[in-house]
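Q: What would this complex look like in 3D?
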Amino acid sequence: MFKNEEMEINLGPQHPSTHGVLRVKLRLDGETVTHCTPVIGYLHRGVEKICENKTYFQGQVWTDRMDYVASISNNLGWAEGVEKLFGIEVPRRAKYIRTMLTEQNRLASHLLWLATHALDIGAMTVFLYAFREREYLLDLFEAFCGARLTTTAFRIGGLREDLPPGFIKKAQAFQDLFLDCVDEYETLLTENRIWKKRTIGVAKLNAEDCIALGVTGPVLRAAGVPYDIRKAFPNAAYAEMDFEIPTRTEADTYARYLVRLAEMRQSHRIIQQCIDGLPEGPVMAKIPKILKSEVNEVYHPIEAPKGELGYYFVGEKGGLNPYRMHVRAPSFVNLQALPKMIEGRLLADVIAAIGTLDVVLGEIDR
Amino acid sequence: MSEPNTPDTPQENAVTPEVPSGPYVYDYAASPQRQIVMPKTVPLPSLKTYQAEVVAAAAADEAKWQKQLADFEVAKAKAEAEGKDAPKLPVRAVPRKDDNDMKTPWPVEAKDADLLKLQELLGDKVEEIFEQAGELVCQVKKEAILDALKVCRDDVSLKYEMLADQSATHYPAAKDFAFSVVYHLTSISRCKRLRLRILIPEGFSPESACSEYPSANWMEREIYDMLGIRFLNHPDMTRILCPEDWEGYPLRKEYPTVGWGQRDIDFREDRGGVLNRLAMEKAGQMGINLKQPKAD
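A: Here is my prediction, written as structure tokens for the whole assembly.
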């Protein structure tokens, strides 16, 4: 009467908890996942091809559209990668402002992660709290560059404009209230029995697997590896900043949650140092209006909220646009680990695993 | 695709209007945006090429200077013979300096201990080894890439644990190769980065790095999808971003930037014209003359 056979189901691509257009083909034995295949590419726009046909200045606009919740990090990677290609030295004030905005963007990205991850698992309230603070940050970005999400915040060689008047005051006001907000999220989740049941021991990925699969960012740090590009290969003004790399050893969803919350506190610390130590001076390097590259190739990694974001450029002699541009998107590589995390686990854990990887499909499909 | 409807009755035949010649161009060759400009140079960073270029540039500069001097002597003799004033001494051109905050990173000799170690371990499998923009580059023979990856991962003094990125570039203008495949390795314990590079001809299948670095799985699928390089011994060599039945490899240089079957309208020109006209009208209504004064 009852046949014992595996069932194949499709999760997504139009599913609210797959964070975009991710499709996961699952083979189920009852409620246990026996096989998992992520299917991606639904949002493929050919950003790399487009950027090969745009100048170095125009291409940055496309980086906003990749990881659209952390666009300033993407802008930073692009700008610094191109500066490395040309050998441009950026003024110190520009570096500080870049660092500050990138960290604020990291907060915004982590807040969106927290909101949607908790929503996926069933904690509705956190969403409202996290988005309240995220709004404040997006308003700050709007004050700085006129856009909330598609920022194109930086220019090659520095910044287009200095900070607008009153920006520091607003940023400081955010600083004053934010740590209490993080405590507030913690009161909602950290000791929450349902949250702990849904996250502790779920979607484990140990350090060896992380490194073998190229997984970076909070997922790697929650497995006990203190690898953070801001410390290992300092870019922008991170070498001058005093902060810690939060790590956990449990390597499960709960540990990643704690790591990200601790990271928010560290980002808060970095922003405070940027505000306090903001040097005076120009914000734009003296560079020609038209940049023509020499034959060169660079790979520039930065620590995006999701992990290692790398830009690979090949420049040709006298070229106005990159001969080849490649993005090492953190979510793309991290998503490879999804089958490893959920095979043999329950179907409900798939949602938690997708949430804890913090994938953004705009970046995976590019 | 579908054939045009043939009118059944003579009445309809009588009122069939002529096909309007609209702005839509379906002709592949006639479309201005479909004209693909293939690269003529091979921008492959390399110390050997750079050194050869520097020597050649110096020789060309010297030859030019000698010619200038010779021309000067001739002109001087001619002026003396004709009794005119002597011509001005030629001035040797100074090479253009970098701009204030720009310092172009040129390739330099490998000095880093990792590169020297790699050279020692791999021996004649190494084709080229240099540093540029603070990055370590090692180009190995295309058959030896798996050995090189093994050495990088397993040697105690190298210990590159993670394959951070893998990517490839198409060089249609090159003669003896068509693609370069680059492997960006990261040593988490030693905070080091290294780029391995191989040059492969069209149709060559390099060994997959999956056995050494499982993270290469999707990256190699992406390379196959975008550039059509097939990797040997890869667990699942299928397309990843494009649909399975997609034709062509988008990141090759001969691939057009306008999609297949897309209408070839030059939006930029059209839109610019409309916007410009609207702006003129609006300004005219406000009593502002935006038109440029005609040259006398």
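A: To summarize the key features: Chain B touches chain A through 53 residues (CB under 8 Å). The first helix of chain B runs from residue 10 to 15.
Q: Very helpful, thank you.
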